[in-house]
Amino acid sequence: MAAGGTGDALDRLIALVADDMEAVNATIVERMASDVPMIPALAGHLIASGGKRLRPILTLAAAGLCGYNGPDHIKLATAVEFIHTATLLHDDVVDNSALRRGRKTAHMIWGNPASVLVGDFLYSRSFQLMVETGSVEILGVLADASAVIAEGEVLQLASAKNLETTEETYLKVIESKTAALFAAAAEVGAMAAKVSPDKVKALAEYGRAIGVAFQLVDDALDYAASSDTMGKNAGDDFREGKITLPVILANARGATDERAFWLRVISDDKQRPEDFAAAVDLIKLRDAIEDTIDRARSYVAAAKDALSVFDDGPHKRALLALADFCVERAY
Amino acid sequence: MAAGGTGDALDRLIALVADDMEAVNATIVERMASDVPMIPALAGHLIASGGKRLRPILTLAAAGLCGYNGPDHIKLATAVEFIHTATLLHDDVVDNSALRRGRKTAHMIWGNPASVLVGDFLYSRSFQLMVETGSVEILGVLADASAVIAEGEVLQLASAKNLETTEETYLKVIESKTAALFAAAAEVGAMAAKVSPDKVKALAEYGRAIGVAFQLVDDALDYAASSDTMGKNAGDDFREGKITLPVILANARGATDERAFWLRVISDDKQRPEDFAAAVDLIKLRDAIEDTIDRARSYVAAAKDALSVFDDGPHKRALLALADFCVERAY
To answer: Max Cα separation, chain A?
Structure first.
């Protein structure tokens, strides 16, 4: 990839919000503290494992784009990261995942009960942080996002192993479980800056669109990447019988024997060790990765369009480049 | 028990807030609705199972005692019940309980993942309801309570099977996991009515004290009641190796062979089928039930004292009688 490409773009955005991010990291450490030592130990294991911190970066960058200098965006970015961390802790219990960001998952070390309860603790802490900013409107946006996330996760659970799941239902799942928090993260950054409603809405739209793109690419990578580059196990979605777009497309386009394969491995839960490699082959055969990535590109284009209400400047350029990064990281 | 006793007292309180409670029940049904059918199905299974609704009753009664007539107490009582329901769903996963209120637990029917996620959904819904009241102060009280509940649950988990757990740590656990929500439930009812800080504080203190009494009695009943009268399995705490006051007292007062028994069944996790009956006998021998109930009585006395700032009236009389009910239900 040429210099000035999308990896650089993320670095540029990170550099733009570096001071704020340092404050967020300090706030994370301060607010996950507890008299009960298991809480910071478990939460810290996940938080320190080097996630990209995309969601709090979105809050900080949105606030920066809107010219905000006050202290609230630090607390809000921390709240957003706590909500995200809580959902990851609960997701890993729900999916029984063994790896996250290249490390053993918390529930494998501390057990499911502790992961559930520390997730609850972080949810509560995130609302305490929002309360400190004094804005009921901002609380409303993040409470709504939290409810939508949970609904999306339940819908995903209810659709698991069901090959009749439509692309529409799949999109509803990823808009809920992933894009809702991306949207809220950007939106509350703008709200803290008290800019006009059209700018708040634009940043929410931007966040929602890159969130969908991000999840589409994630779901493609599960059939295209090695565990090394993902930090989690490639094939996890497959083994859990999760219905993602690559599977929906490959099944819909498949010949009779291919459909029988998908029925056996996804719906009937009868997987043999060699099936994942066969699934990857069928998905390639039906162009399902390329087309999933193409869908992601159209969301990235929409995300960029949403920013047209803002004047040019370093924050806008960095956010435009971040949108590209959401897809280009696939390569 | 004579007519006019404590069972009647609870009925009287319920009658006092009956119209409000009907509105709360309607709001519960309305707000647990979702496009994802599994959510109202799972949440409704637990909510419709006939809990006593003590916590929302507290919010309504506190608002009534403070002369409040507005609509916010209905939303707040619903929010309080949703937080409680969320913690029950997660608790049953954490404890792997099979029965709750005499019915199969939700996680036994829908599985752990669904119980975790629907709990998250109800948490979020509760914050959405609070946002609608527009009071950041009230949000702060319930966010704080939620964080304290989660901390208490983790502390309980970290203390499980540890016979060196002190009575002080045990009290911290039950103050956090149970009394914090009783306190917040009463407090926010008073806050909605915008009464003076001393009255808000008095109701918080009342709620906290009856919450501790309630949990002490619950922990005593686990060694004294049949599954029939509890609606859950007597002996659940014992089988999970939970350290409750009856065990702490019986172990501390026990002779060498008794301590060896407790060490084997609680810490070493080596229980035989006949051990629960033996545990009940040792707890009786060491007066541990009576003394646990006595501790509860002292909290009930403190709860009643806290209400001295209020003038006499039907709400006050009913709340005084409710305090007694928290202990007398044991008989």
So the answer is: 60
pLDDT in tens, A109-132: 998 999 999 999 999 999 999 999
Contacts of A260 (CB under 8 A, 6+ apart): none
With a CB cutoff of 8 Å and minimum separation 6, the contacts of B315 are B16, B61, B64, B65
Q: What is the pLDDT of residues B196-241, one digit of tens each?
A: 999 999 999 999 999 999 999 999 999 986 545 555 568 889 998 9
Contact between chains at A153 and B118 (C-beta distance less than 8 A): no
User: Under an 8 A CB cutoff, do A90 and B120 touch?
Assistant: yes
Q: How is B265-320 classified by DSSP, letter by letter?
A: IIIS----TTHHHHHHHHHHHTTHHHHHHHHHHHHHHHHHHHGGGSPPSHHHHHHH
Is residue B321 classed as helix, strand or coil in its secondary structure? helix
Which residues of chain A neighbour B40 with C-beta distances below 8 Å? none
Out of B38, B116, B127, the one facing A93 most closely (by C-beta) is B116
Pick from B39, B134, B151: which is nearest to A36 by CB? B151
Q: Which of A134, A107, A246, A188 is nearest to B136 (CA)?
A: A134
Q: Nearest residue of A to residue B140 by CA position?
A: A131
Helices H / strands E in chain B, number of each = 18, 2
CB contact under 8 A, B154 and A39: yes
Single-letter residue type at A154: V
CB atoms within 10 A of CB A77: 33
> Rounded to an integer, what distance in angstroms lies between the CA atom of residue A113 and that of residue B93?
7
Sign of CA dihedral A44, A50, A54, A58: positive
Instruction: Quote the tokens at residue B210.
Output: 């009856």
**Do B154 and A117 lie within an 8 Å CB cutoff?**
yes
Predicted pLDDT of residue A6: 55
Decide if A139 contacts A128 (C-beta within 8 A). Answer: no
Determine how many CB atoms are found less than 10 A away from the CB of residue A257: 8
What is the C-alpha to C-alpha distance for residues A146 and A72, in angstroms, rounded to an integer? 20
Beta partners for residue A289, in sequence order: none
CA distance A95 to chain B (A): 8
Q: At residue B162, what are phi and psi to the nearest 5 degrees?
A: -100, 105
> A165: left (phi > 0), else alpha (psi -120 to 50), else beta?
beta
**Rg of chain A's alpha carbons, rounded to an integer?**
20
The CATH code for residues A10-328 is 1.10.600.10
Give SS3 for A100: strand
Q: Which chain A residue has its CA at the smallest distance from B126's CA?
A: A143
Do the chains contact at A136 and B140, CB–CB below 8 Å?
no
pTM of the predicted model as reported, rounded to 2 decimal places: 0.94
Pick the CATH number of B8-328 from 3.90.1150.10, 1.10.600.10, 2.60.40.1120, 1.20.1530.20: 1.10.600.10
